[in-house]
Amino acid sequence: MTTGGHFTYFITVFLMIAGLFIVIARGNLIKKLIGLGIFQTSVYLLYIAPGKLLGGTAPILSDAFTVYSNPLPHVLILTAIVVGVATLALGLALVVRIREAYDSIEEDEILSLDADQAHRKQEQQ
Amino acid sequence: MNLSEHLPVLQVVVPLVAAPLTVLLRKRSLAFATVLAASWIAFGIAILLWMKVASTGAFSYAIGSWPAPWGIEYRVDPLSTFLLVLVSGVAAIVLPFSRASIESEISTQQHYLFYTMFALCLTGLLGITVTGDAFNVFVFLEISSLSTYVLIALGRDRQALLASYQYLIMGSIGATFIVIGIGLLYLMTGTLNLADMGQRIGAVQGTRPVLAALAFLTVGISLKLALFPLHQWLPNAYTFAPSAVSAFLAATATKVAVYVLIRFYFSVFGESQVFDRLPMKEAMLLLALAGMFIASTYAIFQTDLKRLFAYSSVAQIGYIILGLSFGSATGLTATVLHLFNHGVTKGAVFMLLGCVALAIGGTTMTRVQGLGKRMPLTSFGIVVCGLSLIGVPGTAGFISKWYLLLAAMEKGQWWLVFLILASSLLAIAYVWRFVEAAYFREPRKDTAAARPVPWLMAVPTAALVVATVYFGLETSFTIGSATKAAALLMGGLR
What we know:
The complex is a heterodimer of chains A (125) and B (494).
Chain A: H1 7-25, H2 29-51, H3 72-102, H4 107-124
Helix pairs in contact in A: 1-2, 2-3
Chain B: H1 7-25, H2 28-56, E1 59-62, E2 73-76, H3 78-101, H4 111-130, H5 134-153, H6 159-189, H7 194-200, H8 208-225, H9 233-240, H10 243-269, H11 271-277, H12 280-300, H13 305-325, H14 329-360, H15 371-374, H16 376-390, H17 396-410, H18 414-439, H19 455-473, H20 476-491
C-alpha cells in the first residue's frame, strides 16, 4: 500500500483526534457536543472507506461483474448515524435544561455555581 | 408456534415492546402495570433460560432463521444466563420500589416517561447480555446508555442535569471507542459474529490492527464499567439520579459492561492474545488495586451516603477486575461471582438509601444522625449490606472475596492476599462512618418525624437485603453458575 492508499485513514485519524481534542479542551457545553459529533463522524469514515473498491459494483450475482463493494459497512453506519443523531439530540436537550437551571453553558461557571451552593448549604448547617 | 423456542429473543422483545406501549397509554398506573408485567415476564424468561442451559447446555438462536455467521445470533450460555437472571431480577425488584420512590422525586406528568426509559434501559442491558453479534452489542449498549442519561437527568437537584451531561460525553466517547474496536476487528476478520470472530482471529493474531482493536475496546469498555481512573462520571451520576435509578444502575449497568469486557477478552481475542502479547495482566492489576485503595479512601471522606457508596462501587469494580487480571479459572470465577454478589448488595444499599431519602428528606451524614433509633430496620439493613461490602462471612460479599483470595493464593501471591485484606479495612472505615452517625449520635433536635416508608418500597428492599444474606449462606446457585461460566470461558469458545 502506498501513502495514497492510506489517504482515507489519515483523514479519519485527523478527524478523530480533532474531535476528541475539542471535547477535552473546550468548556462550552455546545462546543463539546460539536467535538463529540466530529469524533463520531470519523468512525463512519473508518467503516465506509474500506468497503469501497475502485470499479466495484453493488453485489449483484451475475457473470458480468466480478468486483463487488461490501454493502455491510454502509448498513452498519446507517445504524451508527441514527445513534449519533439521538445522542446529539439528547445532549442538546440537556444543554437547554442546564441553561434554564443555571443560566450558563460554560462548564467552569456551572461548577463554581454548584460549589457556591454547596458552600452555603454547609454554612447553614 | 412453539413459544419456548423463541425465549432468547422474547427476553429482549418483551421489554422493548413495553416501552412504546407506555408512551401510548400515558396514564401512569397503566404504564407502571405494563412495565412491571414486562420486567416480571423477562425475569421468568431469564430463569427458564437458565434452567434450560443448566440441563441441556448452551444453545444459539438465529434471528429471522438466518443462520450464523450471516444472520444475527443470540447466544445463550451459562455466563449470559447468569447475568440475565441478575439484570432482570434486579429490574423486577426495583420496579415496584420505584413507584412510591419517584413520587417525591419526579413530577407526576413525567412518571410514564420514567417507566418508558426504564423499560428501554432494561431492553438494552438484556440485549447486550444475550447477543452474539459484535455490532449488536454496540447498538444495545447505546439503547441502554441513552435511556440511562435520561433517567439520571430526571433527578430532583439541578446538579443531576450536569451529571447526566458529563456521563453522556464520557459514555459516548466510550461507546465510540468500542465501535472503533469492533470496526478494526471487522476489517481484519470480515465477520461480526463473536464466535466466528474468535475463530478467524487466529490467522491475524498479533497484527497491529488487532492489537489496536484490543486497546480501543479495553479503554472504551473500561469507561463504561467505571474502571479507575475512568470513573469520573459515576459518583455524580449515582448521587443525583432518582433513588430507584441509582439502585438499578448500581446493580446492573456496570456489571453488564464487565460482561462485555469478559466476552471480548475470552471469546474473541482469547486469553493468550490478551495476556501474553500485551502487559494486560499487569495493567489491570495495577488499575484494580489503585481503584480499590484510592476510591475506598475517597469514600471515607464523603458527607453524602449516596456518594459514599458510589465511590465504594468504584472500589468494588476494582475487585471484579482484579479477578480478571489473574487469568486463571479461579480468578474468573471470583469475577463472575462478585458481579452477581456485588450487584445484589449494591442494589439493596441504594434501595435502602432511597427509603431513607423518602423518610427523612436526604442522605447526608448530618441528616442520618441517630437513624438507628428513628428507622431501626432500615439502619440495620444498611449495616448488613455494609458487612457484605466488607466481606464478612455470612454475607454474599464474603463468598466472592473468598474466591478472590483463593485465586491469589493459587498463584502464590501472598502480598496480594495482604492487599485485598488491607483494602477491606478501608471498607470497614467507610461503613463505620455510617454506623457512627446512625447509632452513636443523637438525632438532631430540629428534625421532623420520619415519614413512614410505604410497604411497596419496604418489601422489595427487604427482599434484596435478604438476598444479600441468602447468597452468603446458600451458594449452590451462584458458585455453580460462576464455575460453569469460568470453565466455559477458559476452555474458550474458539
